[in-house]
Design brief:
By secondary structure, this protein is of the alpha/beta class. It has 9 helices and 7 strands, in the order βααβαβββαβαβαααα. The longest helix has 21 residues. The two termini are 12 Å apart.
């Protein structure tokens, strides 16, 4: 059986914040793949409140330490929600800067490892959701240009009663175990993810 090492990078949703089972969506999709016969070493490198600007500074060192050249290493990114948070009347990272950051990160990673990109999910704040949805569209365009598989979970989770109810009942942003299970099911049925194991 081929061994695969996968780094997941992003913010609190990658980290699985709010999940009492401490798996989030990333842990769940790896559990599922292992049950189906994959042999995955799983690295969760999600950092709460991190923006794309901060991620750009750290991802290469973190990934290269865990994915030496002699191993089959892969990378999954999902970030952007923290860029859209408003502080002192403006977003933490402007849309144009977010676009520059993702292009730089993905252009670099693509030269080194197979990579997948997953959009940030929706939250409770309607204004912020408009910004997240718009950012997801920009990410989609960049991924298309770079020929990187991109999954937009935002519109699916926005229509999920379980996702929305759990973030309402918790902290307005993060779900609990059932919400992350819904997120995981979307990713693990996605051809971008499935193609890594075919």
């Amino acid at each position: 059986m081929k061994q695969i090492r996968i780094c997941f990078l992003g913010e609190s949703f990658v980290n699985g914040t709010g999940d009492p089972e401490c798996l989030g969506w990333t842990g769940r999709i790896c559990v599922d793949a292992n049950k189906k016969g994959a042999d995955i070493t799983y690295y969760n490198l999600g950092i709460r409140r991190e923006t794309s600007t901060q991620l750009k500074q750290r991802w290469l060192q973190e990934v290269s330490l865990r994915l030496p050249k002699e191993y089959d290493g892969r990378v999954v990114f999902s970030f952007g929600a923290n860029d859209t948070v408003e502080e002192n009347g403006k977003t933490r990272v402007s849309l144009s800067e977010s676009v520059v950051n993702i292009r730089e990160i993905l252009t670099q990673v693509k030269e080194l490892y197979p990579v997948l990109m997953v959009s940030p999910p929706p939250m409770l704040d309607k204004e912020q959701n408009l910004r997240i949805a718009n950012l997801g569209k920009q990410f989609s365009i960049i991924c298309q240009e770079l020929d990187i598989p991109f999954l937009n979970v935002f519109p699916i989770l926005e229509k999920s009663d379980i996702w929305m109810e759990e973030i309402i009942d918790y902290d307005g942003a993060h779900p609990r175990a059932k919400g992350y299970q819904i997120f995981a099911e979307i990713v693990q049925s996605w051809h971008g993810w499935l193609n890594w194991f075919s």
